[in-house]
Amino acid sequence: MDLDQLRCFVAVARAGTFTRAAEQEGVTQPSLSQQVRNLETCLGASLFERRGRSTRLTQAGEHLLPQARALLRQASDTKRSVNALTNRVCGPLAIGAIPTVMPYWLAPRIADFQARYPEVEVRLVENITARLVEGLQEGQIDVALLSLPLASPDVVCSELFRDELLFVLPPSHALAARPHLDPAQITGERLLVLREGHCLRHEALAVCRRGLRDPGAVFESDQFSSVFALVASGFGITVAPKMAVHKAESCSLVPIDGEPSRRIGYAQIRRPHPPPAQKAFIAWLKEARGAA
Fold this sequence. Notes:
Among the domains are: 1-76, Arc Repressor Mutant, subunit A (Orthogonal Bundle); 163-261, D-Maltodextrin-Binding Protein, domain 2, CATH 3.40.190. 39% of the residues lie in helices and 22% in strands. It is built from ten helices and eleven strands. It has helices at residues 3-15, 18-25, 29-43, 59-84, 102-106, 110-116, 129-137, 199-207, 224-233, 276-288; strands at residues 48-51, 54-57, 91-97, 120-126, 143-148, 155-169, 193-194, 220-221, 238-241, 252-255, 261-269. Helix 1 crosses helix 2 and helix 2 (18-25) packs across helix 3. The longest helix has 26 residues, at 59-84. It is globular, with a radius of gyration of 22 Å.
């Protein structure tokens, strides 16, 4: 049993199919399948039930998964701890961020961190919260920027700042000129939201609990650029974070009563000796949050 076999096993468990796992890992499907077969032979147990194109973990696979993730994380930590002996701020650093933070907050600022620490090999990953947490647990991501709270016992979270939520309305909307709006005043509207899996979807629905049409029957997207374009055309309305609304061209922005907000913070795996690059990035985050 080796780390490559465990890495392929975890990738299939995460992706749900061998084909998707191979694409995500950047290897051929036959090569990935062989690694999983070798692991099954080594353990003397089947790890997946193959149902057509999809897979499902067997009881043995369910038992192995958390241990495999822990072993991969330990291997990553061991490599980083040896590199940290020099105390130089250098080496690889994988930073994850949710799609409603990466383009609007991290992307405009990350060049400053890279300029300060040119020997750090920054790798950026944009994904939804669940995938970022898996990346942290598997040692593929060092720090993730996301919306809090986060329920995961092996992940440590710290809040950086609050990001106010606003109504984004078509410019011709009857309520667009209001200084602020009670969500109860918004009735019979199309609410345009991000696709299931995005934490902001649930935050928007929490603001607009009643009076709106079923959002899933109207439109869903992974990008605010599409949502803002539809709002500007008069197709519907949305709830968006303050950090993103400068991209809402030809739309009206109206504060929401009670000033609801989302908590933006960073998450990392609990470890006794994080590498210097990771510690430097955390310190930089705390400094940069003043410009949120």
